[in-house]
Amino acid sequence: MTEQGGITSVAAGSNHSVALDNNGKVWTAGRNNRGQLGISAILPYSTLFSDAPAGEAPIKSIAAGYDSVLVVNSLGEVWALGDNTYGQLGLGDAVDRFYFDKAPYAENIKSAAIGYKSGYILNADGNLFASGYNGVGELGIGFFPSQNEDRYSQFLLAIKDLHWGGGVNIPVEELVPLAHIKAIFASYDYALALDTSGDLWVAPGMGGTLLSVDIEALNNYVTACGYIWKAVIGYVPSFCDNKGAFSKVQNISNIKSVAAGDYTILALKEDGSLWAAGQNQYGQLGLGDNDFRYSFEMVGLPRLSNCQDGYYYDEESEECKALSTVIYFVNGVWNTEDGAQEGKKALESVYGQYLADRYSLEKFEFKLSYNYHQSEWEDLKEVFWQKMKEAQYDDDFIYNQFVSLLRGAVNPIDKILLIIRDCINVFAIDADTEAFEQNNLNEMISDYLNDIAEDKRLILIAHSQGNLYANQSVRILREQTPNWAQYIKMIGVASPSAVTNDPYITACDDYIIGKLRDHSHSNVLDCNIDNKPNGVDFRDWANHELIRSYLDKRLLSKGLIDYEFYDVLDRWEHSPNQR
Questions:
Q1: Are strands 159-160 and 176-177 parallel, antiparallel or unpaired?
Q2: Which letter, b or e, does each residue of 186-212 get, where b requires 16 or more Cβ atoms within 10 Å of its Cβ?
Q3: 440 C-beta neighbours (distance < 10 Å), count
């Protein structure tokens, strides 16, 4: 088979398979009880694909029915094969074909579809024709009980909008063709037609039942015209509006493609969203229950929804948007905005290319969540105000920490503290400190909420005092937006915090954090890494700076930060709307 060229399309029937190669040849395999393989009148089945000749011209499209096959060649001709009990092959009789036979009167055809008992062909002008069983109006060519005709052996023009008041003598001029059709879909005992405007049409049959086309309420029962009444009383009563004509499905538009199961219909819209209707006893519609759907409902697929990899479907904008994560750097004390930007740029330099390579379809942004610098003294007051809030506003406790820290001044950082000590007799947090810290915190939270509103995940990488801000922010966000709690993550570096629910990395020889821990009665998280480098110690004097003392690739801290960062990304789901 492979010697004949590559396969361009395939189709599957009940127990047989059909393939079309790029040379226009048809290949078949499987069961042959009704001649559906087109290779023999006596062979019961074939386990290998065999060439099934269908005229001289190359075949352009194929369709497989229950035990039948329809193909269309480059000349616009239709060739048919297999079960023809109901005339579904459109050959003018009801005789099975064990070899391909040309359908008469079928000209300028571009595609075909075939179900269990009915066949359909579509010409280049967008007109649809049908042949076969019409017992419940599934051909869409008109259904008139008095004619006592439930099957047709030639392709007849499908119609729409057939209205009558109980009579059966319908003038020909009232039979409006179903036009501008671009694709057809056949199933067990109904057909669907998709027009060039993206609207879907259904022939009555079971399709009318699935989609509640032309339904009436009688004795509190919802009944579909053309199916239930035909089965109950033997004909279609006059209160039904469309008698065997194609009807437009009302609650869906802009359809790109359709899949028709026995009693289940899936529709893919141009925006990438997936919609479903019909039988659902096994949950096959994917709507989270087992309830029958008489109209289309959108299916919410996990994570990537109905868009291509790396995107999710946004219901409000009805667009596919890129999966997006924002990585915030939250800086520590005594940083100008330019200095804090350097920290953000360092993170982007370290992780940006990795993210682009590993998650190439997703979008990552690096932003600064700026912890404002006022002065050395005001920044320290702010730190102690935040620590006081951690200690549940124990003023004496925080005052003793502060004085103890000042009296222990022996290193370069203590020189600054000595100056501060000379300027004060009593330490007190004033209202300005509280207001400034709260305003800064509110600004940060506002930025985070704006990103959350745009369905973005958040990772906060905080350094030094930035941990105190980040911890408060994360706690408040998780309380205020509980549905988003698991989509907000934090990684602390050189943390002065007393407690955290997120990973952190603090070197045991970080002088700043160690000093604070020594004089705060264990009101600072324990250190968790020996960060001394081999050989020359290239870190800053306090072993505290983000870039020199934590992010340098020669340090163990860099490996631990990498681990926590990658672990979050690899194990992390996207936002509720992005899933």
A1: antiparallel
A2: bbbbbbbbbbeeebbbbbbbbbbbbbb
A3: 17
- CA 61, 67, 73: angle at the middle one, nearest 5? 20
Least confident of 15-29, 213-227, 431-445, 504-518: 213-227
Rounded to whole angstroms, the Cα distance separating 503 from 485 reads 16
564 CB contacts (<8 Å, ≥6 apart)?
A: 491, 503, 505
- Structure confidence at residue 42 as a pLDDT band (50, 70, 90): confident
Average pLDDT over residues 236-259: 71
Read off the tokens for 22.
Answer: 């790029």
Q: Which of 457, 468, 128 is nearest to 303 (CA)?
A: 457
Going from the C-alpha of 2 to that of each of 39, 376, 568, the distances in angstroms are 18, 77, 46
Q: How long is the chain? A: 579
What's the CA gap between 497 and 476, in Å, rounded?
16
Provide the mean pLDDT of the chain: 80
Question: With 50 as the cut, is the pLDDT of residue 521 above it?
Answer: yes
The residue type of 54 is A
| C-alpha distance from residue 576 to each of 167, 351, 363, 484 (Å) | 56, 25, 17, 7
Burial class (CB in 10 A: 0-12, 13-18, 19+), 94: middle
Task: Give per-residue pLDDT as tens, 272-282.
Answer: 788 988 888 88
pLDDT greater than 90 at residue 157? no
pLDDT at 6: 85
Structure confidence at residue 263 (pLDDT): 80
Taking the C-alpha atoms of residue 172 and residue 23, their distance in angstroms, rounded to an integer, is 43
Burial of 248 by CB count in 10 Å (0-12 exposed, 13-18 middle, 19+ buried)? middle
Find out whether 525 and 556 touch, Cβ atoms under 8 Å.
Answer: no
- 263-63-197 Cα angle (round to 5): 70
Q: What is the largest CA-CA distance in the chain?
A: 110
Q: 431: left (phi > 0), else alpha (psi -120 to 50), else beta?
A: alpha
Rounded Cα distance, 433 and 383, in Å: 10
Does residue 225 or residue 380 have the better pLDDT?
A: 380
Query: Which residue type, as a one-letter code, is found at position 66?
Result: Y
> What whole-number distance in Å separates Cα of residue 207 and Cα of residue 227?
9
pLDDT above 90 for 68: yes
Both structure tokens of 237: 């009563």
Distance CA 483, CA 496 (A): 29
For residue 125, the tally of other CB atoms under 10 A from its CB is 11
The band of 146, judged by pLDDT with boundaries at 50, 70 and 90, is very low
Q: How far apart are CA 273 and CA 267, in angstroms?
A: 8
Residues near 443 by Cβ (< 8 Å), separated by ≥ 6? none
**Three-class SS of residue 264?**
strand
536 three-class SS: coil
